[in-house]
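Appendix B. Chain record.
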Amino acid sequence: MVGVAQLVEPRVVISAVVGSSPIVHPISRINGVLRLFAGLAVMAGCVGHVDAAAPGSPAAVPTLFVAGDSTASSYNPNPKNQQGWGAVLQPLFDESKLRVVDVARGGRSSRTFITEGHWDRMLEQVSAGDFVIIQFGHNDSGALNQEPPGSTRPLRARGTIQGIGNESEEIDNVITGKHETVYSFGWYLRKMIADTRSKGATPILLTLTKTNNWTDGRIPCTAEGYRLWTWQTATNEKTAFVDLTRIIADRFQREGPEEVTAQFIDDTVHTNLTGAEANARDAVAGLRALKGLPFNSKLSKSGRAIHADRGPPKNSVCPGF
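C-alpha cells predicted for this chain:
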C-alpha cells in the first residue's frame, strides 16, 4: 500500500537539463493532494471506502509514461534548443483522454535507469489501465564498469551485457562503490515489462531513435543489435512493439541529409525541437498501428492528422526481422 508520505509529494518529474530544476507535472500535484486527503480519511476511519472516480474526471484519465534516455527526455530552454520526443508528445493526445508523463533521463541505460531509482519512482505513480513506453539502447553499449585501456570515454559504468540472455557479471561499481550484478539488455527490459504488468498497466517496447549518419546517401539500418534485441524481447514476452528505428529511418531517407541535419543539434544523436516533434509524430504513427490498444480514440486534432504506420515500404532502408 502506498504510504502517506509518498502521497504528499508524488514524484512525477519531467527530466530537465543537467543542473536545472526538475519540472513537476502540475496535474500530479493535484492528484497527490486529492489522494492524500482520501488516504488520511480512510486511515482515520472517517469513510468506509473511496468511490471510484466518475468517467472524465482527472483520476479516471489513463497515463502514458515514457521511460527512456536523452533522446526522449524533456529539457528546459537551452542555447542548443535540445529537446527529446517525449517532451512534445502530449499535444498529439487529448489531455482529457490520455495524459503523457515523460520520465526519460539523459545519459541513462536500461541498467542505470533502474539502479539509480528512476524506474521505481515511476512505478509508484503507475496505476491499472496506464501505459508505459520503454525505449533504451543508446547508452547500453558502454563499459560495464572500468573503461578499457586507452579509452577516451568518461567513466560511467552504465553498460549492459549484449543480447537478451540470462548472463550476469559481478562487479564492484567504480562509480557508486557498491557491489552490483550486471545483467543483459534483454534482462532489464524483461524486468520493466514484468514490473509494469504487475501494476495492471500495459508495457510498450520501442526501438531506438535514429541517428543522423549517412553512407553513400543512405541511412544505414540493420536487423542487429538493440533494434533486434528489443524486437526479440517484445516477441518472447508478447509485448506491444513499435519499430521506431525503422519508421524514423524511412522518413530520413525520404527527407534527405540536409533536411534531417536541420533537426539535430551539434551532434548526430540529439534532436532540436523540430526533430523532437518529428520523432513524436513517428511514435504516434507507430502507436496508432497497435491492434487492441486504444490510442486512436485518445488523439488530439493534430494527432488524428498523423496516419497510422502501415509497416515497412518495399524500399525500406531497414531489413525485416
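Further analysis of this model is presented in Appendix C.
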